[in-house]
Amino acid sequence: MPNIPLRNGGPKARIAVIPGDGIGREVTPVAVQVIRAATAKRNRPLEFVEFDWGADKYLRENVSLPEGAVEMLRDEFDAILFGALGDPRVPSNQHAADILLGLRFKLDLYVNARPTELLHPRFTPLRDRTPADINFMVIRENTEGLYAGVGGFFKKGTPDEIAIQEDVNSRKGVERIIRHAFDYARSHSRSSAGFQPASGGSHKQGESSLARRSSGGSPAAFSDRSISRSGAGFQPASGSSQMPLRLCMSDKSNALAFAHDLWQRVFKSGRAEYPDIDSRHLYIDTLAMELVRDPSQFDVIVTCNLFGDIISDLAAQLAGGLGLAPSANIHPGRTSLFEPVHGSAPNIAGKGIANPFGAVLASGMLLEFLGWNEESAVLKQSVKCALAENVTTPDLGGSKPTLEVASHLSNYVAKHS
Ligand code: NAD
Ligand code: IPM
Ligand code: MN
């Protein structure tokens, strides 16, 4: 759908590119290259603007997230393609907190959607598991919890020191993420084909639920389940029945008697409101165990910020590792941010061997957010093809450098677009 205005400003999709630090600077250009290949022939008007925010700038100029950056991104861009932040020269990680957490919080990107899908059976460390068993979405609350930055030191540096980190859970915050998860489960089915909406029913069939300005910014919309279970090039995991996805809410309400009591009560209301959704609760420790024992029991997991961070790394490993895991930081209808789950990997940075698949799959989520579902599907298919042909970096047992994998991906995408 060329020429449909995405922003108020015009027909082009404007994408801010923030490669960041370490391997973020190696995988993000690959993602841009592959997006360009996917959109070139289809005449999708796209503009990339790169920003050099990261450790170098922070050390050089003492600037992390520049003044006015949030407003600029919000008003002038449709999406943000992000690499990773983290540098051994900044042990406090202050610039990462300012930039990454700053953008998540200040753009109010309350949904952190982290799909886990086994794209090729040989990459799971679990015995006898197939792609049909490992295919679920972690929906992580992304704007509060223990990440809110509320706390402080008392008598710092003394033997009597006290360090406090508050777990901030607002009713509004818990309600909106749990509602999003229920809507997501309801609007996706285990055998759905094509890119299905995730909006509590307000979208038309086939319209991307990620589309933002063009769809008027509808609420609770995110369809990356289609990245995991369906869509051109994405294999449906199970038969032909149209079952809504199963939802699992996970907390630690047996120990965190205030914060997670709120999660319990909100979840209970959600269950009453969505009786058609097969939903249940697991404590987070049990969830970790069950994910390893039998991942096939999960379709959608919703949890708080910290638990979502941890469980999404565990989930990533079930499907082959951090190098393959994408993520989307979304506020439906607003400028949103797409990044691989992994960090800046200082241990391999600069060696040219970083796995670009997570970044490329995150770009696929970005294209879906723009409503460009076919392009998104081609990106994912290119990764599947590279995996099948063992065109992979060393973390996946291959011998290819990043740039060779990149060529394979963009050739595939150019050929199939
Ligand atoms: P990491 O994800 O950077 O690396 C963990 C391990 O996975 C390392 O062995 C690394 O080599 C490997 N790995 C990760 N991504 C890979 C890829 N694409 N290809 C090949 N191997 C890959 O996590 P870490 O080592 O705990 O953290 C390093 C820095 O990154 C820290 O400063 C941390 O705060 C930061 N970090 C940033 C983000 C982010 O920007 N979103 C996420 C996680 C960690
Ligand atoms: C992630 C990262 C970040 C997080 C860090 C770098 C603050 O681990 O995106 O998963 O904890 O959210
Ligand atoms: Mn993490």
Characterization of the model:
The chain contains twelve helices and twelve strands. It is globular. It is 36% helix and 16% strand. A ten-stranded mixed β-sheet has the order 2-1-3-12-11-4-5-10-8-9, sandwiched between helices. The protein folds into two domains: 1-107 and 335-417, Isopropylmalate Dehydrogenase (3-Layer(aba) Sandwich), CATH 3.40.718; 125-317, 3-Layer(aba) Sandwich (Isopropylmalate Dehydrogenase). Strand 8 (247-251), helix 7 (259-273) and strand 9 (279-283) form a beta-alpha-beta unit. With 417 residues, it is of the alpha/beta class. Residues 23, 27, 84-86, 93, 96, 100, 322-323, 339, 342-348, 354-355, 358, 393, 395 line the site of nicotinamide-adenine-dinucleotide.
What structural keywords apply?
single chain, Isopropylmalate Dehydrogenase, 10-stranded mixed sheet, two-stranded antiparallel ribbon, binds 3-isopropylmalic acid, binds manganese (II) ion
